[in-house]
Amino acid sequence: MCTCQGAAFEYIFNIEHEAKKAGVRDNVDIKWISNESFLGDFGMGGMHLNVGGYTASSKIFAESLYSERKLSWIIGAHVNKVEAGKAHYELLDGTMGVEEFDFAMLIPPFAGVGLKAYNKSAEDITETLFAPNGFLKVDANYAAGAYENWKASDWPRTLQNPTYGNIFAVGIAFAPPHPISKPMSSPNGTMITPTPPRTGMPSAMMGKAVARSIVDMINGATKPTHTACMAEMGAACVASAGKGLFSGTAAAMTVYPVVPDFEKYPGIGRDIKMTTGEIGLAGHWIKHFLHFAFIWKAKLKPFWTIIPE
Amino acid sequence: MAAKHMEHIEPYSPQSGTMIPTNFRKFLRTCVIWQFFRFIAINIKMTILILKSHH
Ligand SMILES: Cc1cc2nc3c(=O)[nH]c(=O)nc-3n(C[C@H](O)[C@H](O)[C@H](O)COP(=O)(O)OP(=O)(O)OC[C@H]3O[C@@H](n4cnc5c(N)ncnc54)[C@H](O)[C@@H]3O)c2cc1C
């Protein structure tokens, strides 16, 4: 259950790009090991795109890119032990495997910081405030149960803690009601499934909505006045696949909504017109520009408010 | 005619079961003129998405 697959994607493709630039690409064997049930799941159940007269799954585009760049993959894998030069893993079919490496990058499991909470009378209220994974409980439906019962409306809107009205959690800190991807486990009972990503744009939009609600509540409102729901907002994501002003590439994607809504958009759960993706130099330029724009925004320099999340 | 862009693909491997971009498609990805127009198009798409996401 690791965090953003996008970060790992950027890492592996940039390593490949740099190895090629340094002229040593033929000497390195690069492999992706992931808990996704298919390549291109990205923790959000994949996405569908309209390309060349077809509506195709991100699985096809991800496999295409990995194949083109000579990267192999092991999918549905839970890495359960790492020792010097060896990563041990279990697959969805219950079999075990070992991968030998000279250099590896592993993304840690996704969990809250593990804060303890106490009320005025010093009673431990950690379980009331936080989900078992350490994330803060908000206005989500945590009782949705099996995948078949999941709905877009399970996802939080005000991000307010149901017990303590003056506590909110946004971005990575809030406890999602459940994953986005269909959960999978091996016959040995090991859960092998990716965590829902909470990327920069949705995190910032939640922060903004909560900040505005808090302002209104300080001024007398009795409940939150603004909402930001991952099942109602889109996300624009630019994943680097190699740096270089004229040789770089990045996958520029838009998804709407982030959490699929199969009632509103039967079949694929998303608005096909607003869910797009392509790889190229333009994506790299956008990523490079955003880097400076967001630092500008973080420093509250002139016109920072017009820079979107 | 041999397909140069497919030469690194092992028959019956997982890689052979997917689509591989042609050399022309790969050229377009870093063709500055084409990418300039894609830059504008992607920015428009992202702006529409951002506007739709803000309530
Ligand atoms: C390698 C990587 C690449 C990524 N690339 C992208 C990308 O290209 N596009 C994109 O949209 N998203 C990307 N993301 C995701 C994005 O960074 C996150 O979604 C976003 O930063 C979440 O914001 P946040 O405010 O919720 O959490 P954070 O940015 O993690 O902020 C949490 C803050 O809380 C602080 N904190 C933790 N514990 C305590 C404590 N006990 N007391 C006080 N402070 C504490 C931390 O120091 C941190 O500053 C990437 C993530 C990673 C890891």
Automatic annotation (TrEMBL), chain A:
The keyword Oxidoreductase applies. Keywords: Oxidoreductase. Its EC number is 1.8.5.4. GO terms for molecular function: sulfide:quinone oxidoreductase activity. It comes from the Bacteria. It is an enzyme of class 1 (oxidoreductase). This is Putative FAD-dependent pyridine nucleotide-disulphide oxidoreductase, sulfide:quinone reductase (Fragment 1). It comes from Sulfurovum sp. enrichment culture clone C5.
UniProtKB/TrEMBL annotation, chain B:
Keywords: Membrane, Transmembrane, Transmembrane helix. The chain crosses the membrane at residues 32-51. This is Uncharacterized protein.
